[in-house]
Structure formats: structure tokens, C-alpha cells
Hints:
Layout lengths: L3 H9 L8 E3 L10 E2 L1 H4 L9 H7 L4 E3 L3 H16 L5 E5 L2 E4 L11 H16 L5 E3 L3 H8 L7 E3 L5 H5 L12 H9 L5 H6 L2 H8 L1 H10 L15 E12 L5 H19 L3 E2 L2 E8 L4 E6 L8 H10 L12 E9 L2 E2 H11 L1
Parallel strand pairs: 1-3, 6-7
Antiparallel strand pairs: 1-2, 4-5, 8-12, 9-13, 10-11, 10-12
Amino acid sequence: MDAFYASVEQRDDPSLRGRPVVVAWRGARSVVCAASYEARKFGVRSAMPAVRAERLCPHAIFVPPDFARYKAVSRLIREIFARHTELIEPLSLDEAYLDVTETKTGLPSATATAAAIRAAIREETQLTASAGVAPNKFLAKIASDFRKPNGLFVVRPHEVLDFLAPLPIGRLPGVGKVMEGKLAALGLATVGDLRAFAAEDLEQRFGRWGRRLHELSLGIDEHPVTPDRPTLQVSAEDTFEHDLTLDELEPHIRRLAGKTWAAHQREADEGRIARTVVLKLKTADFHTLTRNLTPTQRPASEHQLAEIACALRERVERPADALYRLVGVGLAGFVEADRYAAQYELFG
């Protein structure tokens, strides 16, 4: 979807159309959830501190996010997808992979299917979507950005190598700033440069990831579209108005444990339970710390989750007066409830 949250706001409030819209709470600790294309012209981007967005675009209109509304629209879009294929892998509320090798509609090509989906989204939600059509997931993902907003870009099998060659290496999935810097030190700036570099040398320097990089440079990706991917973690987090010390975090940890436990119970209703407790902290200087524990017996209540999460503070080896701007509580390590019960009876 194109600037999804901001586009929903502009759709529902005609006075916002054509104007720079930033979906975010105002305040020193807030971050941008989405920015309209009018705001993006000024350099405003998602995940940017809201105060910086306000400096870049002083006349932007700030709108607090309404996630319930965005989720409702997302469900409508998912229903449109499902008319064409059952193989849908959601990435977020506004993005998904679809495998349309076989479709319910009998349309003659993936390109025709993408066009039909985009037309239905426009007609039924009054929103625009951009699509990438390609032989595999990572190529389709890259292609989906090429004609934004409201565009369609197709990479046919015989075009893959030529399409990839001039792209910056940072466009490949998994290549962040650090890896990009390491590859630049080897004189590798584009995907074509990477392809020309010996796969054996890449593997020697970066292990299995080096081999994977070479495969990506050739357009190779065998990962299938995986519908209904199981939840890996549920969590809740909060950014504070003022930085706090570890000792001051306990009431916030207990409150967030309640939210996380409620989310966990929805998974438990589906027969999956979590075994690992995660505590996430972000320091005043924006470093992220995580501590986790998989107890012998999984947390069986909100109270137990809160107790373990609070105790994980003892594993944070920082001065007592160190300050934190964010805390989060999570549950991970999901397993089938029946399997866990059988293991516990065997070894408990």
C-alpha cells in the first residue's frame, strides 16, 4: 500500500488531501508511523523522531494514529487477495507476498492478476497500491518500490540479471549499513560488482551469508510464500516522557506484562504457548538491550511473567543511575501446547 496510514487519513478527511500529513503523536519521544508523499518531499520518513519531522516540514499536519481503523482496512485488502489465491504471506498491515502461480480467477498472468488486485483495492477502498511482479519473493519486493506510488513493475525471468546489476548492494534483503560498509571496503558497490566477486571468497569472508549474497546477486531465492506464518513473539513496549532508571521501571514492566499476557492468551486459544520471557530496553543514547530467560517451567500467569521480566533487570550490567527511554516485555519460543505438556510430564 502507498503511504498506508497517511493515505487512510487523507481518504477519510478530505481537508488533508494534497497536504503534508504525518501520522504520529506530537512530543519529544514520538516517532513517525507514516508520512504522506507530500510530507516525504521534505525528507520526512517513517520511524523518524517526530520532532525532526516537524523541523523538516513545519507546516505538516500531525494526526495521531488510529490502528483499529488501519487494521479494518487491511482486512478488506486481505479479502481482495483471497479472491485470487490462498497463498498469502502478510508482512505487515500494508504489505504481503502472494504466490499466483495458480489462481482462483483464471487470469492469464501474474501481471494481469496484480493489475486486477490493484484495481479492486482502488475501487473498494479508495486507496492506491503498488505491486512488484517477479519470479520470486525478494525480486518482487524490490520491484514493488520501483513505480511507487500507484505503480506496477514487472521483472520477467530473462530480465532478472540485467535488472539487478545496477542496483546498490543495499537494496538486497539483509544488507544493512554495516554489511554495506564491509562490501564497500572490498570495492563492491552494486549488485553487479557483487556478482563478479568470487563466491568462494565471499563465503570465506562472511561464511554462509557470503554464499547467500552471491545467490541473491544472481536472483536466486527459493523461499516459498508461506501463509499463516506462526507467531514468533508477542510483546508490548512503551517510550517514556522522561528517561528512567532500572529501579523506576518496575510498574511499567508489570503494566506491559499485562498487555503481553493478553496477546499470549489469544495464541494459547489456538493451542500455542510461549516459554521464553524477553525484556527489551532502549538506553537514553538509543542503544537497544535485550535480556531473555527460558525457565524450567514456562510462565503460567501474568504475575509470573511480570516477576521474571522484572528479575531480568539484574542481568543488565550498567550503572545503577543509567537511564532508559523505552522498556518492552515479550514472550517468545512458542510451541504447541500438547507437545509442551507431554515434555513436561516426561521430564518434570
